Structures are given as structure tokens and as C-alpha cells.
Amino acid sequence: MPSDAKKKMQYRRLGHSGLQVSVLSFGSWVTFDNQMKDDLALETMQAAYDSGSNFFDNAEVYAGGESEAIMGRVIEQLGWQRHTYVLSTKFYWGIHGRTPNMQNTLNRKYLMQAIDGSLERLRLDFVDIAYCHRPDPHTPIEETVWAMSDMISAGKALYWGTSEWSADEIRAAWEIAERHHLHKPVVEQPQYNMFARRRVEQEYARLYDDIGLGTTIWSPLASGLLTGKYANGIPEDSRGALPGHGWLAERLTDPVQIQKVENLRPIATELDCSLAQLAIAWCAANPRVSTVITGASRPSQVVENFAAIDVLDALTPDVMERIGAVIA
Q: Which of 22, 58, 263, 312 has its CA 20 to 30 A from that of 69?
């Protein structure tokens, strides 16, 4: 890894909070345990760290807790100093089967126990960000807000946020916290890419200024569709071919979407970058995006993805307009 790779990275505040995160970051969804064990996970995380990533994303439910366990062991082995990285995890689905109060919930009992389990697997005293992984229609938002605020007061998390919540749900949580002088949600983790734009660009539009919402977006490559590798079907070594991911097949082989990706190829060629780098840079070009969470199954893929930082300056208004015409 070139020594200057880290110097190229840009950092943005997480919404109106004081926390700074790298514009490009690394997540473990799908890959950890499913595609890589400790040794390869260590290599990919180190590649991301060497490229300037200071934010690493996880979730309790990923690989039934094993993703957190792998990340915890890897960080311990690498010996990273705690102040040099930001780590997040997420709660909602649970990992204890059909046990009452421990699945598909954001009630206080679950959240208080879930954070302890995650910290044990991650081998940490605290996480930097704890997310409510999905909204829970069966638990009063006020109960969830109190629990998340108490999690921070107990020193087990420094910030909290949401993932795939509606704008109304986020505002309700923020107003409850404001009213009761509790720790407020500061970040949302939504899907965002060239084919999934509405929520980040429209639904949340007023929240950025009204409450200072930050975003840590996921799936910048639309599960790999925007890399162009699905133009001729689903490769055997791709995410779409993994057991349990058959639900992706229809999306990844949509002829309309595939044609749009191919129409982006000339733009990528002009900019001397890959389709993947173009798609990642396009997400990062949105100033409302705090960080773009990337995934990878090997170190070389990390290096390629993070080279998208070099494409940002080339995304002039004219280029963005041409991209917009293609993906409209």
C-alpha cells in the first residue's frame, strides 16, 4: 500500500456532531464469516485502515454475531490504538432465535442486553456509534430513545442513530430526546446509490439542517450491480451466488438496470476509473453523505474501492449532469 494513500482520504463531521469519519469506510456485512475468516478479514481491514478509513461498521445480526467476533479478534491482533478508529454496531433482529424480547425489537430489555453481548464479542469497552437497525412498530419510540440515551450515559456507546427509519420516525425520536434532555440520534444509515436515491435526497432533505442529521450510507454499488459484473449473468464467486442471497438475483439481472450501468461505462472510461469507483465517488460527492460504507472480500478489492477518492475532483457539475441523465 503506498504510504501516501492515507493522506488522500477526506474526513467529514457526522452531521452536526463533532465526530469526524473518513469519507470512505469499511463494513463487514455479507463478507465476514461467509466469505472470509480471521486471516483474510485482518488483511482487508488493514488495507482499509492503511487507505485512510477510520470508520468500521458491523451489526449484531451479521453472521449471527460471528462478524463482530471476527472484527474484535482482528482489531486486538492488529493492536490498533482505540483513538485511531470509529466502530459501530446495530441492534434490532437479535441472535437468540425465537426467544421473547430478544428478536425484532427495540425494547429496553433487548437493547440493554444486546450492547453487552456486542461489546463482549468486539472485545471493547464501548462502541462509537450504536444504531437501531430498523424501526420497531411495537415498542414506543420513547422507550427506545430512553434506552439508547442510557446506553450512552453508561459509557457503552458515544453516539446513537438509526438505520432505515422514516423521516417522521427520526424526527419523533429527536423531539422526544429534546423534550426530555436526553442524548439525541445524530446519524441515519440508509441505503444510497445511483438506483436508490429517494430517501437520502428527498425524504430526509429537511432533517439535515433541522436536526443536523448525518448519514453513513450502505450499498453504494447496489449489491455489485453498479460494478458491471452482472451484465452476463451472476458469476459463481459473486455476492449474488452466495447461499441465502437468491433474493438478489432478480435485481442483479434486471435488464433495464444493467443497460443503465453499461451506459455509464463511457463516462468511467473518460475519467480513467472503474464503474465501481465511479459509483462510490458519486455517492461521496453528495455533501449530505458523511461516509460511504464499502465492502470487500479481498485486500485488492479494498484498494480498488478506495481509489474512488481520486475520482471525486473529476465529478464536475457537467459530469454529474451526464450521470444524472443516464440513471434517471
A: 22
